[in-house]
Structure formats: structure tokens, C-alpha cells
Amino acid sequence: EAQVTQNPRYLITVTGKKLTVTCSQNMNHEYMSWYRQDPGLGLRQIYYSMNVEVTDKGDVPEGYKVSRKEKRNFPLILESPSPNQTSLYFCASSLMGGRAGVGELFFGEGSRLTVL
Amino acid sequence: AQSVTQLGSHVSVSEGALVLLRCNYSSSVPPYLFWYVQYPNQGLQLLLKYTSAATLVKGINGFEAEFKKSETSFHLTKPSAHMSDAAEYFCAVKGGSYIPTFGRGTSLIVHP
Predict the structure, then answer these.
(1) Hey, which end of chain A has fewer CB within 10 Å, N or C?
(2) Angle A9-A10-A14 from CA coordinates, rounded to 5°
(3) Do A40 and B9 touch (CB under 8 A)?
(4) pLDDT in tens, B22-63
(5) How far apart are CA A102 and CA A95, in angstroms?
(6) Residue A1 sits at the chain B interface (C-beta within 8 Å)
(7) β-strand A19-25 against A4-7: which pairing, if any?
(8) Per-residue pLDDT averaged across A96-101, rounded?
(9) Looking at the partner chain, which of B45, B98, B104 has a beta carbon nearest the beta carbon of A42?
(10) What is the pLDDT of residues A7-59, one digit of tens each?
């Protein structure tokens, strides 16, 4: 089954304790992206990657890191989480290139993070 | 540059009534347009997409959307709302970039 898998789905942590949210897709997609969703603000892009070893900042990258060492994985790293990073996070992937440029995003189920 | 405006953060309808969710876009090139739906405690999933093949696009669960270039709109409609349609709906545009821009979302509330 084609899917994007995120872990953990729920996490409560404390300020300053490093954490990683994993994301994996099994569709051989080149493009992967992280979003955060907050009430009234919709989806905001944190980072994206157009291929292995290629990553770029989105609209709200401060306080986050990513890496793309393998095509299928795109982990989101919070080196020193703060309460303003409490949010619902989504990983997404899609095809790129040619007609695949019209490809839609496939989303994970979301990771709800609370930073105390 | 590309952008999306969804009019109304909340839309309330009665079961059986017409659903109309509004989306206006801007794009410097002919766009690809998408509607996604997010049910409670789930990720987003594609409802339908416009890729220039036809201006009236049919999606899942009885939804459809019409691309109107002159109005730069891509409004989502459904003739008769069901309780199960209650969800958050997002419009998105891809212009000259592979990176989509999302609207802020519209929460659809369906009353019995």
C-alpha cells in the first residue's frame, strides 16, 4: 500500500530536549516536505527536499533541521524544542518532473507535538 | 509568484443543502489546482485536481470544482451535504514551481 509513515504520532516533551520525527515513503517520490498546522494559520511549510542530499527552507524553518540521506526518508529534527513549536506536523511527498509536476501530495497521518 | 485565498474560515450548512467552498488563486503561469480534505485526526488527502484537461473536475465523495480563468477561481461544490462531509478543506495551487501553496483552510460544519 502506498503510504507516508510518520513517527511518533503523539509526543509530549520538555523544552530543550532534542527530538526527531521520522518520515518514510514507499512510492519512490523525489519530493518530500514538512508542514506544521496551527489553528487559524493553515499549513505552513518548514523544509522541503527535491531529491537526495538536496534540501531547502520553507516559510518557517527556524528551530528545525532536516536531512535527506536516502530517497525514502526525510526526518525532522528539533535540536532544542521550545513551547512555540507545539503543533501538528505533517510530512508529505510527491512525484516531480514533466507531467509528474501535476502530481498531488501524499500526506502522513500527522505527529502531534507538545513542548512543555 | 503564486497564492491562494479561501473565503471563509468556517462554512455551516444543513444536511442535504448545497456545499460551496470558495477558492481564488493567483499565478504567473497556467496553474495546477488542488482541493484536499482533512477529516478529524487524519492527514490530508486529495479530493480532486485540475491539470488543464477539463475545466469541470469531478472528485471523490460527490465533490466537484470548476476552473474559471477569468475569475481566477476554483470553487468546490457538492449538491447535497452529508454529515460525513464535516472536515477541513484546503485549496492549493502549483504555478511555475513544483512547490504547492496552500490556502488557510475552510472548516465545513454540517448540521442535522
Answers:
(1) N
(2) 140
(3) yes
(4) 999 998 888 899 999 999 989 999 999 998 778 999 999 999
(5) 8
(6) no
(7) antiparallel
(8) 58
(9) B104
(10) 999 999 999 999 999 999 999 999 999 999 998 898 999 999 999 999 999 99
Which residue from A minimizes the CA distance to B47? Answer: A104
Would you call B83 helix, strand, or coil by DSSP?
helix
The residues of B whose Cβ lies within 8 A of any Cβ of A are 9, 32, 34, 36, 41-46, 49, 51, 90, 92, 94, 98-100, 102-105
- B30 phi-psi bin (left φ>0, alpha ψ -120 to 50, beta other): beta
- How many Cβ contacts (< 8 angstroms) between chains A and B? 50
Contact A36, B5 (CB under 8 A): no
- The DSSP letter of residue A30 is S
Task: Check CB contact under 8 Å for B32 and A101.
Answer: yes
A8 prior amide bond cis, ω within 30? yes
How confident is the model at residue A14, as a pLDDT? 96
Q: Using the beta-carbon criterion (under 8 Å), do A101 and B36 form an inter-chain contact?
A: no
Mapping DSSP onto H, E and C, the string for B13-81 reads EECCCCEEEEEEEEECCCCEEEEEEECCCCCEEEEEEECCCCCEEECHHHCEEEEECCCCEEEEEECCC
Residue ranges in chain A assigned as alpha helix (H) = none
